[in-house]
Each structure stands twice: as C-alpha cells, then as structure tokens.
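Need a sequence for this fold. Nothing fancy.
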C-alpha cells in the first residue's frame, strides 16, 4: 500500500523518466517533402482508394426500398410477421421507413465521403439482397397457404 510520503517521490521519479519515441519526426518530414516532389515531378500518386461506386449506392438504396415494400406486402397475410424485434410483429410502413432512416443515416451522410470501400458495400448489398429474396419467397408461399388479413 502506498503511503502519502511515497506519492511525491513517485511523481518526481516519473517526471525524470525519458521516453523513447519510435518515430523520427525529422525523417518523416523529409520523406513527405520527397514524396510531394515526386508527385509534382512525375505525377506519381501513392494513394490507394477503393471507394464505392455510384451504382453500388443506387443498388443499396433500391434494396432498402424493396425491403420495406416486400415486408409491407407480406404483412398483409396472417401467417407472416416481421422478423426484426425492434419493429414489432406488424409495423406500419411509416415505422419501417423511420427505422431505416434512423439506422441508415450514417450510410446516407457518409456515402460521398469515401469512407466505405467497394467490398464493404458489396457485403451490405449482398445481405440486403438475401433479406429481400427471402421476403419475396415468403410472400409467394403466403399467397398459396395463408389468408389475407
């Protein structure tokens, strides 16, 4: 246990410690000047950007609209209920749109900022497509086996 007498001694010892920083800031500055000069002289760009495309975003928003549409159509049948526990068993279209708006707002705000890569948006679009396909499959089954509400 530390006594009050050892606290000032520990504080003074910590002030006298030298911390070795693994970065050579002068070298970093020199390298950045050289890279800037190379870029200017030869047009060499060392930036890699695998940004998402406009088509991927159109597809993303289309999938979100199809999700709401297919869910709304499916909920007209008595054997189908919403799978998302945050929405309840029979959410209204307004509630589904509000839910999408709240949870997808970061995508909307950042879609033109180069934050998301092509692979990330492809993955999200793949998952969304799977949900929409499942919704339409359930809707087709419900048309033959269930009654409308």
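Here you go.
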């Amino acid at each position: 246990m530390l006594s009050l007498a050892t606290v000032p001694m520990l504080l003074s010892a910590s002030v006298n410690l030298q911390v070795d920083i693994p970065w050579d800031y002068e070298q970093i500055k020199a390298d950045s000047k050289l890279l800037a000069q190379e870029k200017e002289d030869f047009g060499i760009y060392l930036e890699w950007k695998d940004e998402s495309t406009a088509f991927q975003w159109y597809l993303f928003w289309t999938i979100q609209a199809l999700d709401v549409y297919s869910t709304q159509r499916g909920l007209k049948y008595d054997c189908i209920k919403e799978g998302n526990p945050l929405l309840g068993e029979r959410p209204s279209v307004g509630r589904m749109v509000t839910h999408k708006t709240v949870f997808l707002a970061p995508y909307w705000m950042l879609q033109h900022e180069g934050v998301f890569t092509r692979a990330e948006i492809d993955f999200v679009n793949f998952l969304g497509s799977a949900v929409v396909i499942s919704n339409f499959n359930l809707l087709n089954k419900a048309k033959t086996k269930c009654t409308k509400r």
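For context: The helical segments are 6-15, 25-42, 54-74, 93-110, 118-145.
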